[in-house]
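To the team - adenosine monophosphate complex, inputs and output below.
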Amino acid sequence: MAITVVGSVAFDSIETPAGKRERCLGGAATYFSLAASFFTDVRVIAVVGEDFGPDEQAVFNARKIDTAGIEHAPGKSFFWEGSYLDNLNEAKTHNTELNVFGAFEPKIPEAYSDSQFLFLANIDPVLQRRVREAMPHARLVAGDTMNYWIKDHRPALMEVLKGLDVLLINDTETKMLTGSRSLVLSAAKIFAMGPKTLVVKHGEYGATAFFSPSDSKTAEHVARRAFHVPALPLEEVVDPTGAGDSFAGGFFGYLASQAELSPKAFRHAMFYGSVMGSFAVERFGTERLQQLSRQDIDHRFTLFRDLTHLD
Ligand code: AMP
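Output:
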């Protein structure tokens, strides 16, 4: 089943304890689609500027990602500058330039309309909502956001949440969204906003899924239906940028490749998410995802099995 994704396609300048990179290809939709492309067909909706050239396009082509929905506009692409010098789990944003995204009107190619899976990657919630409304028949809709939108664009974000089945965000964003220090209470609050599943990413500490209980929404019921996946212990995290989007790509890509969206499929998807996140952080930008093979992914999945197997 094909996935349509809307989100940022960007240039990033990144500084981590391992070094610096200027203007490398990035963006939430870029990481997501590279990761998901190992599991299923991916179609992207975004806008880029004149600085997006054949080298950047080749990265998508190499993974057979459908970029018919990437509009080329006059001006510069989305630009993000961040560092992780104090804390590898949380980016410090130094600069965000929306550029061509500022006036973007998403147009969905006719050929994308049969996508049963829709991912609203990190971007202005107004754009996320427009794409969601244009694809009312999607079978499963998941989405991401970040502190930038939670803080200053809350009403628009609340509208997006109403149309989501699955929300994937990191733990500080979860607490920022709900005002609660407890993830269990946050999950219960987020279920009341729309999503039925909440995936909380904890950076180097893995991720926890909370599945909405149909019978009761008490904190105890929520906690009982949680599922945790670790992150792979790595010698060195070179660049955490895109780990969350790569997690989302592995998670949603795996789900879209399954005949049935069973609880088992969701649990496996959590592991594939963590597998893809673990690759993304091994090199700067999208470098590692570009060199990956399906065999590497299967091998690492086995490592995760060993890491978590009790008996
Ligand atoms: P993450 O997976 O959270 O590390 O996402 C990193 C990517 O998010 C980078 O490649 C940035 O280009 C992109 N990004 C940063 N800020 C924003 C924003 N405000 N809206 C959309 N994308 C962003």
